[in-house]
Amino acid sequence: MLNLLENQNVVSTGKIIFLLLILFSISKAEDKIFNPPIAAQIEARIGTYYLIDDDKMRLDIGNSFDLMKLYENDKIQINTGADLMTFTRLRSVGKFKFPVETTDYYFGLNSTFVQKTDNDKFFSGRIRIAHISSHLIDGLAKDGIFTQMPYVYSREFVDLIGAYNMNLKDRVKLKFYAGANFIFSTIPDEVNKIEPQIGVDIKHKIFNPNLEFVIALDHRLLGQNNIFRGSNSIQTGLNYTTSENTNMFIGYYYFSGHSIHGMFYSENDQYHGLGIQLYY
Q: Max alpha carbon distance in the chain (Å)?
């Protein structure tokens, strides 16, 4: 019976992903009007980090799309879009081999807005409604035996974030943001239903207009049974924008707090990482 339920969940998840892909294909994409926070833990990324302390790797694959414009006047613009992403943890066994230990699957819809203004200070924001589930992969097993038993991890939530943006002398961009994640359905059920978040992104152009130094900080309050603990992320490095408006980032990532992987949600992680990311 358990296997049947798990198979039904996989089929349902596959159907939703398939419908989202159809939506992508028939919709005209819009330019993104809200750039996701750089260091935030649950955001769409394409990139990988080698975790220096643990001899593991983190692999993020996904993107956030603005699919269509919902509303526009001379003061604001509102878009709607979708998010598809995975967060994967791998371990190193040498000879460039990295067995996959666990993967989290995220998909959802979003709506974003940006304030139109003639000056270099403006507000923007985003609301997301999404599902995330987590699964153990065979790379966690040793000699064919899992070192941890899998269980059902699934949650649905609404995520709100607002940002105040400043462009200073065409060289420095600042973004201060705050928000919260509101969980309305979850397995296991002891996780806190509200997760506040604050952070800042700083970008400074150096040497030429396409190269910038980036530093970003994100702080979230996560926990279980109404006990909160802080989770902190820091990302810093160099970002280069190509002529096709694709961004290539190389730099450093630090994380300390509750694991972002659902199969290890009650455990704490702390690591330093070096890696690369692509944005488009």
A: 63
DSSP of 123-173: EEEEEEEEEEEEEE-GGGEETTEESS----EEEEEEEEEEEEEEEETTTEE
- Interatomic CA distance for residues 63 and 42, integer angstroms: 12
DSSP 180-246: EEEEEEEESS-B-SEEEEEEEEEEEE-SSTTEEEEEEEEEEEEEETTEEEEEEEEEEEEEEE-TTS-
Q: Taking the complete model, does pTM exceed 0.70, yes or no?
A: yes
**Complete domains list, the chain, with CATH:** 2-279 (2.40.160.40)
3-class state of residue 87 by DSSP: strand
Q: Are 198 and 186 in contact (CB under 8 A)?
A: no
Average pLDDT over residues 49-53: 88
Using only C-alpha atoms, the chain has a radius of gyration, in whole angstroms, of 19
The residues that bridge with 10 in the sheet, in sequence order, are: none
Question: Torsion over CA of 10, 15, 20 and 23, rounded to 10 degrees?
Answer: 170
What is residue 35's DSSP assignment? P
Give me the torsion for CA of 104, 213, 204, 181, rounded to 10°.
Answer: 10
Let me know if 64 is exposed, middle or buried by CB neighbors in 10 A (0-12, 13-18, 19+): buried
- pLDDT per residue as tens digits for the range 196-227: 999 999 999 998 888 999 999 999 999 888 88
Whole-number average pLDDT of the chain = 85
pLDDT reported for residue 8: 45
